[in-house]
Every structure is written in structure tokens, then in C-alpha cells.
Amino acid sequence: MKRIAIVGGGPGGLFSALLLRQKCRETPEITLFEASSRLGGKLLTKHFETVPVPYEAGAAELYQYGRDPLRLLIKETLGLPVVSMGGRAVVMDGHILRSLADVERHYGPATVEAIEQFDALAHAVRPYDQFYDGGWTADNDQPLFDRTLASLLADIPDEAARRYLKVLIHSDLASEPHCTSALYGLDNYLINDPRYCKLYSIRGGLERLIDSLRGEIRAEIRLETPVERIEKCAGETYRIVFRNNGECRSEEFDSVVVALPHAWLPNIAWGGNRLEAAMDAHLAHYDHPAHYLRISLLFRSPFWRQEFNESYFMIDAFGGCCVYDEGARHDTSGYGVLAWLLAGNNAFAANNVADDRLIAMALDSLPKEISAGRELFIEGHVHRWLGSVSARPGGTTIKGLDERHVPEPIEHAGLFVVGDYMFDTSINGALDSADFATDLLIETLGLERACVDNDYFDDYYNGATYAESYAVAFDPHYVVDAIEAVWGARPPYRLLDAGAACGLTLRALDKLGVEAWGIENNPYIHAQTPRPWKSKNRFGDVRALPFEDDSFDFVYETCLAFLPEADLAQAIRELKRVARKGLIFGSFTTDLPADLVEKHDLRYGVRTELSLDRWMGLFAEHGLTPEVNDAKTMARLWATRTRAFGGKHPHTAPTTMSHCFLKTATPAQILNLPAPVAATTSVSRIAL
After folding, report:
1. pLDDT, tens digit, for every residue of 106-121?
2. Of 305, 307, 578, 608, which has the highest C-beta tally within 10 A?
3. Contact call for residues 142 and 186 (beta carbons, < 8 A)
4. Cα 497 from Cα 520, distance rounded (Å)
5. All domains of the chain, ordered by start, with CATH?
6. What is the pLDDT of residue 587?
7. Which residues pair with 384 in a beta bridge?
8. What Cα–Cα distance (Å) separates residue 289 from each residue in 52, 62, 182?
9. Residue 458: its pLDDT value, please?
């Protein structure tokens, strides 16, 4: 088994470990090194000492760009509850500006016109359908990529408009306009448009993401174990030199993923001239540090809510600062929590200021309408995040994905770097980076892929998506007619589609009178379930079904072959447990005609390749045997298939097809059923 070292226990390192588990047929042996005493990096949720009220001490929020992979991971795979965030108010010169009408009232129509022109420019330069793909090599040809944001803002003729825009985007930039590109500045401005991006948090704290990831990965985690040196060995392995409990040790690995913030990379010595030179060049290319500093204050009550009743507002103090109402995403038990997010040079300079002085400065910055509330102050904390993000993510020239993630491809093709500084300095970017790096790692080491990628559903049949072409492989009339031919049952009855994708099969079966439910484990396709079917298309694992015993008359399965063979017994037991009468077996078998398999790429994502005889033997071990044993029923079933698919049978004979209809109960066990209800046991979320 291949051994992989992941250096860094922040989001990037944990994402890498999770994706390797999901993508590989057999999870490689992973060792994760973390220098500190905790996992999570800048995802940090703390509590005050006076009362245990929570607040975010690190990253402020998460971003949703359309059908964002991070949002799908959090909600669908990990099952974490989220809360939306938003805020419109900007406080400038003591004025609370909630709309352009407020801006016009205090500064005049010329200021509004200048802001609207900037807004139009931003939308023209980065249309909505191109926003998520920002940060790719195509940006190198965008004229505003080579300009600074400062030069773009200088073109705005109205001074108040310039200041308003600086205050609005300063916290998102974490840098100064002269240190970043005009294009990146426009991208951060567009984050304020909910059509482009929606902000959200995790109910209970962003650090819950780290706790959930730790529970999902399969890795040996070594805390308080800083890596001091990485070098290539005489063979194709890599030596990791690390320190733990005052002792210096070393181990060898087949591949290394370095998932550290850019500022921490110089703490590692890179063995050999070639690797050292490559890492020096990597460091230089991305050396555009940006800074944050958080001041979190606890109050006896949320006194500001009459003036500011959203998740956050902007103020012109500290060069442009975002003030978060932590009670908008946390249960603060009647207390109030405000958190100032200082950014850029202001955060850098504030690093040299004592905590009590920074707390006093934050209180002094309260708008006059709510300044009396400072008397309700109880406790405050300061958390410093210098150099934690990038002022120019991707560098002054955007590189290709391979070049970003493999700094030295000639002799060190098995050493990868992962980091949000190569994308958009967000947790979303860390996931994107881990996704690309693990793809390259799997290819380089020749590991066998296991899971179905999103592309499987985007190119389901002849270039069409699953939604556009699923009917090629699924005919609800055939399912209903086959059940009648085999079991003599006509709708209404209850059926579970095990491997229901986005639930379109449920809708089709419902039109024929079937009460259809679904179970789907792929978060990407499950998230596309139409709203009317979300309650019936459950997200979960076929190895731990969220239904009571005997919840369904029949189960129609198409997912077993996507499981590792070692897990089939558990999955079959679960399917039998919930199926009162019968199971329709629809997974891949090695008996299918070779031309059919090749034409439709039926092996894609398959983890278990068994002949029909071996499948039947496995089913028999768990009490499922063929229902069709007489020639008359067999002929009736074959005719049903012929009517549905015009004589194009994937099976070579009626006998092979008839083996796909399995009985799970004797006639004495067939009773009226209650409506399906969720089981009290938790669902294990493991990618099929």
C-alpha cells in the first residue's frame, strides 16, 4: 500500500485526506503532520471566559458561488446546518448608508453616478457566468489584471465614491489597493452582489467543519509534530524529517502533500539544489502577504440591533473595517457579540498594539447612534492572522494547474503543494486546490480511482447531463410492468430507488401511481434534486439506510457495484432489511456484452466487478434468491423487456435477466406497511 504524508492540518490538509479516501479504490496509508496542538488552521471557533458564548476567532465566513463544491460538502456530505449571512450598511463620516438613496442624500447625485459606473464596469469585466472561473490562466489576458486596484480607483472622479468603495471592499481584500490587481478588486466588489456570491456560516461554528472532516478521514494524525525537512531519497520515496517531544526523527513516504499557508513554507528545509531552487521560485511567485486581525467583544445585550439588524456592517474606521454581529450565526444566550475584522496594513500595524488598547479603539469606533452601548462591554479578545492570506492570489501571472501544484516536476513529481493562495484565498479555494492536487497524485502514483466524479453526471450519455439523458437507461413503465410480471403487484405500492441521483426517477414513478423514495450518496447530483422531491430523495449511505425495517414493498438498486467488495455484505443486509417483498438488481456485471460496456463506458466508477453468478451467490448468502423460477413468468418478463426497449437486451437470455428479481420475504411476511420514517441511527456519509 502506498504511503502518503500530508504536511499541515488546516482545511487544505484535511480536504486532501478526505478526497484521497473518496477517490481511491483503496485508501492509501496517510500520515498527517501538524505543528500545533490542534487541527483547523484559520477555522477557529472560540468562547468567552465570563460566559461560554461562542464567536469566530479565525475565518469570518464561507462563500457560495452557484453550485459550489464546498457548500455541497458541508450540507450534503457532512450534513452540517448552515446560516445565511448578509449586510448592506456602510458607515462613513458618521452617516449610516444603507442604500444609494442614503448616499445621494448625504453626498449628492455625482457620488451615486460614480458608484453606479464602477458597478457597471465590474459586471461588464466579470459577467456572472465567468465569476466562478476567475483565477484561471485566461485572466492573464485581461487588461485589468496588470493594473493595480489603486490605479482603477484613481479614475473615479468623485472623492466620496472612492472612499465609499474602499470601505466596502477593504475587509474582503485584506490588503491595500496598491498591493493588489484591479481585477481581483472587482471580484471582491462583486461578492457584495448576491447574484454572484452568497455568504454563509455553519450553525454552531465554522470549526464544526474541522471536527466533521476529522471524523471522515482515514489518517494517522500527529499533532505537535513540525516538519523540518523534506528531501528525495535514492529511490522514488521522500524523506520527512520531523520533531516530536524534543526528538528529531524521519520517515519515508511515496508522496508528499504540503498543505501549509504560504508564510509557513520557509520553515521547511528543502533537500537538494533542484528542489530548493523550485521551492524558492514558488515562494517568490506567491509572495504577496495580506493580513487580518480580529477584535471580538462581548456585551450584556445586542444593543445595536435597532440600527443594525443584519449579519455585519462596514465602518470607515481602521481604513475600512467589517463589524460582525456574531449573534446572527451563533446562539449568544441573550448576550451581544461584535467582532471587528481589521485588514491589510491596518491589521499589520495593529499587531504591535496591546490587546487592551485595540479593544478600546474598537469601542471608540462605534457609530454615534449606538456608542452608548459601550457601557455594556464585558470582555474582549484579539486574534492575529498576519500573512494568513494573499493580496494577489495566483501571483502576478496565473499558472496552469499542474505548475501550481507541482513546483518541481522533473525529479520531484510526487511532491505537491496545496493552498488557497494559489486560488482566491478562501476556504473554497483550499478545497479546489486539494481537489486538483489529489487528482495529480492519484495519476502520478498510479492509484486506482474508485468514486464517480461529478463529470459522470455532467456527461452521462453522449455529452448530455444526467437530467437530460437519464431516461435512456431508465424506463418507469418497464419497472412497473416488470414488477407486475414477476410479483403480480400493481401500483400503488412503495419502492426505494437505491442510487436515485437527483430524484427524477421518483417523479417518473409517481406519475404511474408508485410511492417512490430515493437514497443517493453523491452530494453533487443529490443537490440537484427538484424541490418537490427533496423530502423523499434522502441523502445517505446504502450501507446505513435511514429507514425502518420493511419500509418498502420493493427496492430498485443501481449502486452496489460502486461499493468496495468488502462493503457489499453490509449493503445487501440493509437493502433486504427495508424491502418487504423484493429486490430488483440493476448493477454492473461482467456478463454484459463487451460492446455495450464499451459504448456506454459502463465500468466508469465501478469498484466491484462480479459475474451474475457471483452476485447471485452473494445475495443467496443473505437470504435473497431469484423470484422467477418458471418458464411462464420468465417469458412474460422477457416480453415486458422487449416492449420497453425494442428487443435490445443487455442480457443474453431470459434466464440471466430473471435472476435480477430477488425475493426478500415469504408470503406470510407480506403485511400493510406504515409510511417510511427516518431511523434513529445516524447515517454514515461515505461516497459511493
Report:
1. 999 999 999 999 999 9
2. 578
3. no
4. 9
5. 3-43+206-287+392-445 (3.50.50.60), 64-70+82-200+289-390 (3.90.660.10), 457-669 (3.40.50.150)
6. 87
7. 293
8. 34, 20, 17
9. 65
Angle at the Cα of 447 (from 446 to 453), degrees rounded to 5? 115
- Model pLDDT, residue 75: 84
Q: 153 φ, ψ to 5°? A: -65, -30
E strand spans, 371-420 = 377-390, 415-417
Instruction: At 457, list the grid cell.
Output: 453526471
Distance CA 100, CA 115 (A): 9
| C-alpha separations of 50 from 190, 303, 347, 381 in Å | 39, 19, 26, 12
Helix segments in 149-237, DSSP class H? 149-154, 159-173, 182-190, 207-216
| Length of the chain as a residue count | 688
CB 233 within 8 A of CB 252: yes
Q: What is the pLDDT of residue 94?
A: 95
| Beta-carbon-side half-sphere exposure of residue 210 (alpha carbons within 13 Å) | 20
The answer to whether residues 300 and 335 touch, using CB atoms and an 8 Å cutoff, is yes
What pLDDT sits at residue 669? 43
| Weakest-pLDDT range from 107-116, 131-140, 342-351, 541-550 | 131-140
Sole residue written with cell 448552515: 82
646: left (phi over 0), alpha (psi -120 to 50) or beta: left
Better-predicted residue by pLDDT, 670 or 387: 387
What is the pairing mode between strands 247-253 and 238-244? antiparallel
Confidence of residue 646 (pLDDT cuts 50, 70, 90): low
The yes-or-no verdict on residue 518 having pLDDT over 80 is yes
Q: Alpha-carbon distance 509 to 500, whole Å?
A: 12
**Residue spans of beta strands (DSSP E) within 423-535:** 494-498, 515-520
Rounded to whole angstroms, the Cα distance separating 230 from 223 reads 18
Residue 48 is classified by DSSP as: -
Look at 432 and 473; give whichever has higher pLDDT. 432
**Calpha distance 442→450 (Å, rounded):** 11
Q: Is the distance from CB of 654 to CB of 635 less than 8 angstroms?
A: yes
- Rounded to 5 degrees, what are φ and ψ at 650? -75, -15
One-letter amino acid for residue 223 of the chain:
L
Euclidean distance between CA atoms 668 and 675, whole angstroms: 20
**Torsion-angle region of 367 (φ positive above 0: left; ψ -120 to 50: alpha; else: beta):** beta
For 203, left (φ over 0), alpha (ψ -120 to 50), or beta?
A: beta
SS3 content of the chain, % helix, strand, coil (to 5): 40, 20, 40
**Residue 442 is placed in which grid cell?**
492519484
* Owner of C-alpha cell 441523502: 539
In this prediction, residue 419 carries a pLDDT of 97
Here the cell at position 337 is 457579540
